[in-house]
Amino acid sequence: MFKNMFMKKVEFSKAIELKAYATGSIMKLEDIPDPVFAEKMMGDGIAIVPAEGNISSPVNGVIMHVFPTKHAISIKTANGAEILLHIGLETVSMNGEGFTVHVTEGKKVKVGDALVTVDLDMVKKRAKNTVIPIIIVNTKEMLKIDKLLLSGNVTIAKETILAVTAK
C-alpha cells in the first residue's frame, strides 16, 4: 500500500528540442540541391547554410557514429530520436580533409558541445555545397517533427529549430 508513496517517479520525456547546430541561415530540406535530402529519402529535418565552420551538438545525447570521412555524425537522444548531421554535399570525396572532429563514438554530448570544425573555404572549392542538413533518420518511429524555424538566420546553440516527439 505504501510502496508507491515512497518510490520516486521518473518521467520519460517524449519531446525534445533541437537547437541551431551552426551559425548561418535556415534552409528547408526541399530546397537542398540533392534529391536524397530534398525528397526526404533518409528522413525529415531541416538544414543550415553555415556562415562559419563550427558545428555543435543540437541536443543532449550520445554519439552513435562518426563517419570515417568525418563529414557526418549521428546522435541518439533520450527519447530515441536518431539524428544525422551531414556536413556539406558530396563531401565524402574529401576523405576527411578540412574536417576536425571533436567527439568519439559513445561520448555523451550536451547542447552546444563542439562536434566538428570544418574549413568552409575548402568545402566550397572541393565539394558541391556547404549546406548542413539535420535529419531525423527514424522519422517513422516519431509521433511528430515540428519545424519551428523555416527561414532566417540562427546562432549556434541559441535558437530552437526543431521539436521531435516520440510515439
Write a structural description:
9% of the residues lie in helices and 40% in strands. The protein is mainly beta. The radius of gyration is 17 Å and the shape is globular. The chain starts with a helix and ends with a strand.
Number of helices in the DSSP assignment: 3
- End-to-end separation in angstroms reads 32 Å
Counted beta strands: 14
So what's the overall shape? globular
Series of H and E elements:
HEEHEEEEEEEEHEEEE
Strand order of the largest sheet: 9-5-6-7-11-3-2-13
Taking pLDDT < 50 over at least 5 consecutive residues as the criterion, the unreliable ranges are 1-11
Major beta-sheet overview: 8 strands, antiparallel
Percent of residues in beta strands: 35-45%
As an assembly, this protein is single chain
Q: Structural class of the secondary structure composition?
A: mainly beta
Return the average pLDDT rounded to an integer: 93
What percent of residues adopt helix (DSSP H or I)? under 10%
Cα Rg: 17 Å
Give a short summary of the structure.
The protein has 167 residues and is mainly beta.
Which key phrases capture this entry?
167 residues, 3 helices, 14 strands, eight-stranded antiparallel β-sheet
